[in-house]
Amino acid sequence: MRRPKMFSWIAVSIAVTVVLIIGFVIATTWTGIGDSEISLAGWLAMALGVLMTLALGIGLMVLVFISSRRGYDEPGRKDD
Asked: How far apart are the first and last CA of the chain?
């Protein structure tokens, strides 16, 4: 059974509304904090965190593709 297109538009409009509300709350909170500075150690920690997160994500995606191409994701066979 196919859902009417109206439900898709409702879901999209709800998702966009939630994203806009969250963006407004973040912007209001960010401007309310005022001036804050990040030290050199803070910048280094952030850079290392971003690099490690990217490395982990890329590494896991590589493993998914390797596993898929070599057939490790196929269902097992029962040999009698």
From this structure: 41
Q: If you ran DSSP here, which 8-state letter would residue 39 be given? A: -
pTM, two decimals, is: 0.51
Q: What is the DSSP string of 5-17?
A: HHHHHHHHHHHHH
Average pLDDT, the chain: 87
Which of 18, 16, 37, 36 minimizes the C-alpha distance to 26?
A: 18
Domain ranges of the chain: 1-36, 38-73
C-alpha 26/C-alpha 33 separation (Å) is 11
